[in-house]
Design a protein that fits this description.
The structure is a single chain. By secondary structure, this protein is an alpha+beta fold. The chain folds into 2 domains: about 170 residues; about 70 residues, Arc Repressor Mutant, subunit A. About 55% of the residues lie in helices and about 10% in strands. The protein contains 11 helices and 8 strands. A 3-stranded antiparallel beta sheet has the order 1-3-2. Strands 5-8-7 form a 3-stranded antiparallel beta sheet. Helix 5 packs parallel to helix 9. The longest helix has 16 residues. The mean pLDDT is about 95.
Length: about 240
């Protein structure tokens, strides 16, 4: 079965933060969806675009499945904060978990940034069509996802079609726990070494380090040793 693109509209930080604001004041997700459509309608005229944008935001923050339910519940709990960096980390992790196309584009950008290679929309498009095939829905979605990264201020334009990464230092323990949980979830491996969790291309906007003691205290992870190397996994109730 071919992968579904899904994220075919650019999503601004304002829209994402508005979703969080609505979640702080309302428990009824259907009411939040209705309020989101009304809010987006202040900026977008086309009803189809309003609906699709609201659906993407809903999928990111309001919908979950058996595989990601507990991570999303943790993100919903910690994101109700005035900490802008924590919110950005949470938005980023939820978009990675929800949309494979966003995850793959983030991986491409992160690898280019790590190799100190020029980040261009052309190269991203070439790598994505290599991975996904040259489908019209993908070709339409790629610039929308890049624009989302611009709108949430993790990519800055250098010139037309060329970008540089804007980095954020992450010190909040809750944000770091969410980063680690998200990486383990996305890698789909039983265990990850601590080295694998540092500097992963998917988390290219963030500089962070972590304390094993903090991860242990979160009660979200299990630890083991393989060949003398400490490895970490998500506990069964957080998968």
């Amino acid at each position: 079965m071919s992968k579904q693109v899904g994220m075919s509209r650019n999503i601004s930080l304002d829209y994402l933060d508005k979703t969080i604001e609505l979640m702080e004041n309302e428990d009824d997700f259907e009411k939040i969806r209705e309020d989101l459509r009304e809010y987006i309608g202040l900026y977008i005229d086309d009803n189809t675009n309003i609906r699709k944008t609201a659906n993407i935001l809903s999928n990111i923050w309001l919908e979950d499945d058996e595989e990601n339910r507990n991570i999303k519940a943790y993100a919903r709990k910690i994101v109700k904060s005035n900490n802008a960096n924590l919110k950005l980390v949470a938005h980023w992790c939820m978009m990675l978990i929800t949309y494979k196309v966003f995850e793959d584009i983030a991986s491409v950008v992160g690898k280019l940034e790590y190799m100190q290679v020029e980040i261009t929309s052309r190269f991203i498009r070439e790598k994505m069509t290599d991975m996904w095939g040259e489908r019209p829905t993908l070709i339409h979605a790629i610039p929308k996802n890049i624009r989302t990264m611009r709108d949430i201020n993790v990519l800055e334009p250098v010139k037309h079609g060329v970008y540089k990464v804007k980095k954020y230092r992450v010190n909040d323990e809750r944000a770091i726990i969410l980063i680690v949980a998200t990486l383990i979830h996305l890698k789909d491996k039983l265990y990850l070494s601590l080295d694998e969790l540092m500097g992963d291309s998917l988390m290219f906007p963030f500089d962070y380090s972590f304390d094993v003691g903090v991860l242990e205290e979160s009660n979200m992870f299990s630890f083991d040793r393989f060949g003398g190397e400490l490895a970490i996994s998500l506990k069964e109730n957080f998968k």
